[in-house]
Amino acid sequence: MTKVVMNQQVIHPMVKLQRQVRSLVDSNLIKPTDSIWKIAFLYGDEWPHWKQELQAYDFTMQDPVIDLLEVEAWEDEE
Length: 78
Prior knowledge:
Radius of gyration: 15 Å
Protein name: DUF4327 family protein
Order of helices and strands: HHHH
Number of helices: 4
Strand content: under 5%
Distance between the termini: 40 Å
InterPro entries: DUF4327
Structural class: mainly alpha
Helix content: 40-55%
Number of domains: 1
Pfam families: DUF4327 (PF14217)
Low-confidence stretches: none
Number of strands: 0
């Protein structure tokens, strides 16, 4: 019997958000210099969750989007 083990890496939720925001910038829907609060309009009902997550990583809603995009690694404090 052959056992196949798949090596799946779990993507951090903030990486997913970062990728979505990168896509918004690449699509020219927002600019890297825009404040993070501008993405609130695009996330609708999900925004309170993402706002809380961003604030947990010491982001303010006035920080530019580029600050979010420049994060290289997201680490959860334990």
